[in-house]
């Protein structure tokens, strides 16, 4: 597996649709979440969309996933729309190559790298898929230097 590139991620405000999913069912459920999101009018600041893992509970194998765009303020975000403040962070970036249904495999490779690289560890902030204006996907994992290097 190729090592990731590292990118700073500036603080941002994200708005969109947040849903809880069982990890095993997420690949089947998330596409419908994206369809609902695309029907939600939001005034975004750039031509980038995000698929954010807001939380993951390893014991129950459940995650909270958010389809989102960056907004300049939460003031104009409709009631009931999910909101997330993302702080400044450093991310390990993994490009996704292949069809959208193969994104879980890219996540698997990224998480394997995170668990085995020896220098970087999870920064315990939201992980996300970043889709550019061409709909090219990258996995962004917030990292910090490991306190225990192997």
What does this protein structure show overall?
This protein has 150 residues and is an alpha+beta fold. It is built from two helices and nine strands, in the order ββαββββαβββ. It has helices spanning 26-38, 103-116, and strands spanning 5-9, 12-22, 49-57, 62-71, 82-86, 89-95, 120-122, 127-131, 137-145. Strands 1, 2, 3, 4, 5, 6, 7, 8 and 9 form a nine-stranded antiparallel β-sheet that branches.
Short descriptors:
150 residues, nine-stranded antiparallel β-sheet, 2 helices, globular
**What coarse outline follows from CA principal-axis ratios?**
globular
Rounded average pLDDT: 92
The oligomeric status of these chains comes to single chain
The biggest beta sheet is recorded as: 9 strands, antiparallel
Ranges where pLDDT stays below 50 over 5 or more residues in a row are none
Q: Using the CA coordinates, give the radius of gyration.
A: 15 Å
The structural class is: alpha+beta
Say how many strands there are.
Answer: 9
Q: Estimate the helix proportion, in percent.
A: 10-25%
- Distance between the first and last residues' Cα: 19 Å
Could you tell me the strand content as a percent range? Answer: 35-45%
Order of helices and strands: EEHEEEEHEEE
Q: Helical region count?
A: 2
């Amino acid at each position: 597996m190729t090592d990731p590139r590292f990118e700073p991620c500036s603080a941002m405000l994200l708005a969109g649709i947040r849903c809880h999913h069982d990890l095993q069912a997420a690949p089947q459920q998330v596409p419908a979440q994206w369809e609902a999101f695309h029907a939600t009018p939001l005034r975004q600041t750039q031509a980038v969309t995000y698929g954010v893992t807001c939380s993951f509970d390893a014991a129950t194998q459940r995650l909270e996933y958010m389809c989102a765009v960056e907004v300049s303020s939460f003031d104009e975000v409709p009631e009931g729309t999910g909101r997330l403040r993302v702080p400044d962070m450093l991310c390990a970036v993994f490009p996704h190559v292949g069809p959208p249904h193969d994104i879980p495999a890219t996540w698997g490779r990224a998480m394997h790298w995170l668990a085995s690289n020896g220098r970087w560890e999870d920064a315990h902030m939201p992980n996300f898929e970043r889709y550019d204006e061409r709909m090219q996907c990258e996995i962004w994992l917030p990292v910090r230097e490991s306190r225990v290097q192997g």
